[in-house]
User: Fold this.
Amino acid sequence: MEFIDLKARYRRTEPRIRARLDAVLEHGRFIMGPEVAELEAELARFSGAKHCVSCSSGTDALLMALMAWGVGPGDAVFLPAFSFFATGEAPALLGATPVLVDIDPATFNMDASALEKAVEAVAKRDPSIYPLPAPARERTLKPRAVIPVDLFGQSADYDALLAVADKHDLSVLEDAAQSFGAEYRGRKTCALGCHIAATSFFPAKPLGCFGDGGAAFTESDETAETLRSIRAHGKGDDKYDNVRIGLNGRLDTLQAAILLANLEVFPEEVEARQRVAARYAENLSNMEGIVAPAARADRRSVWAQYTARVTGGRRDAVAAGMKARGVPTNIYYPTPMHLLAAFAHLGYAPEDMPKAHAASGEVLSLPFHPYMTEDEVGIVAAALRGAVKEAGR
Ligand SMILES: *Cc1c(COP(=O)(O)O)cnc(C)c1O
Assistant:
């Protein structure tokens, strides 16, 4: 069994992909060829966002967004303590200070009431209000931006988060790297009212390509122009008129062509993902020692990962039991952001983010992809039941 079976999609899309790739090989415009603009128009249409600016990765989409706002030293950028490192890496690369915010343990996403406290703590330079990183204790930083993450494919609670952000005048960057195609209160991610949204087309993400790729989304004409400039070395009216410091951040035409083919089957895959998740929910409900992931009624996840919790300190034993039964699992993420070696200089203690810390010790992601059969889900569930029993002895 595969953890994510990317070949199952390829078996379906191969003719479309080969035709698309042939077209690019024929016209030869490998950098910013016509497929790039075509893809951007399709992604904007799909999500409902006004502008889509494709780029070289999800990480670069986050970085370009923060660069467009001029985020840098002296700025506090709030982000969840439980996410992939890139969410915190982007502000850190620009010299801004990542200020971590604990999660809602049910959804693994940023807790809006914790964000409110963290902003107040930074503004008043008072770690008794909320745990602060060392740079925010040493001097008063400017609360500048927040990066909520739609972890595992389910959107964060944007009505609550945007209310806090509005009140404190924070720019909001949605990290939708795992949630392209998901919905929150009837609207699609990347068009939920955040100033900019960033997504990733890394192969294992819900909409993946065959390499690295990403995109930023915005409603603002001006921001879209700035993002396009940053993507191409800070170009002005032409490419040798450089008006700002930028990146080489373009999406390859070949990857855009692959994404156009994959996008054709993507809506059906999003539906199939719901069926697989429902099947898992049936199998995992009332399973001793396992907490199935919470699917909020006002959201529709794309299930980038199907991540359960293993309670009772048995996660690692259960993961070993799954391996012994031939079922692949993964741990996203074994170390919460506040305890990563790269962020040691922030000086956080384990107990500063108790919910993120607890999650990192309990999460176990199970095999999941839209082409999984009911039987396969049943095999995973049976293995899990066996592994939990064995671990409990
Ligand atoms: C994958 C991911 C990223 C980075 O995307 P890349 O395309 O790999 O650079 C950022 N944030 C989160 C939450 C991710 O899962």
Observations:
- Residues 267-391 form a domain with the Aspartate Aminotransferase, domain 1 fold (CATH 3.90.1150.10).
- Residues 57-59, 83-84, 86-87, 149, 175, 177-178, 200, 202, 212, 214 surround pyridoxal-5'-phosphate (CB under 6 Å).
